[in-house]
Amino acid sequence: MGPLTLAVDTKTSSKPHLDAPILKMQKTKPFASINAQEDSPFDFLRILFEGVIAGGTAGVVVETALYPIDTIKTRLQAARGGGKIMLKGLYSGLAGNLAGVLPASALFVGVYEPTKQKLLKTFPENLSAVAHLTAGAVGGIAASLIRVPTEVVKQRMQTGQFTSAPDAVRLIVSKEGFKGFYAGYGSFLLRDLPFDAIQFCIYEQLRIGYRVAAQRELNDPENAAIGAFAGALTGAITTPLDVIKTRLMVQGSANQYKGIVDCVSTVVREEGPTALLKGIGPRVLWIGIGGSIFFGVLERTKRLLAQRRPISDQQPNPKQD
Questions:
Q1: What is the value of pTM for the model shown?
Q2: Would the pLDDT of 303 be above 70?
Q3: 86 φψ region: left (φ > 0), alpha (ψ -120 to 50), beta (else)
Q4: Measuring CA to CA, which of 11, 129, 247, 250 is 20 to 30 A from 170?
Q5: pLDDT for 315 beyond 60
Q6: Which of 130, 282, 260, 135 is closest to 190 using CA atoms?
Q7: Per-residue confidence band for 41, with pLDDT thresholds at 50, 70 and 90
Q8: CATH topology of domain 20-306
Q9: What are the structural domain ranges in the chain?
């Protein structure tokens, strides 16, 4: 949801430090902006550590909760023509997938958080959206090194090609070599980089705007609701990319498709343009609920970690949003 981030919240009070001039500026800027108070020192290692812990926790929770929906989505996308969808073994491949989701989510958020905060300190306030988009893409590239092999094994187990993760790894290596774990890597990046960038940008911008309007910090249900909206919207937009990624990843050594362009043209020619929207219902549902859980757990974990810092490090720093 993948997977696969940011600034660690350092505020512990329920009221943000906003003043009248800042609120007035919000009406004239195209993107939500952030209070330009004096920044605290940039603590890269702390931000990285807290991002890794928060990201790993959120990734494992959401993947475990929503894995059956992801399995149905994958089977819908992999089925050709009027093929029937099996509803057995909806948790097939979960254990092996969690072994990849945990480090991938941790790496994504661990890279996203310091990248986002550094960019927010560099860019003007009215370009905060650009900082969020860029940080999401950078985090996605880093996490893809783990996400893609995990996704390949998971989806082939979900479609019944293998019965266990060890068997999947062994047979992929023997038949396709190491490069088999990166089948569909280009299409994965084509889907996940825009997805990560757009989802986190929408989420972060909505949080900033909501905080400014409400003149207070968001609570857990509000973070979850914004995460659900950002996830569902982004999931719907990127469904065609997800279909192509799935077809390329599950084809195995058959090499039915020669690449992304050939895959798109073949699917459209043989099954019609609507085939590119296969699984959109389960995908939007899965990512919408997943966004709610992921961002809810992420913000809660970040807040708990912030509360464990020394008192001197717990002063609010609005530019870290």
A1: 0.71
A2: yes
A3: beta
A4: 247
A5: no
A6: 260
A7: low
A8: Mitochondrial carrier fold (1.50.40)
A9: 20-306
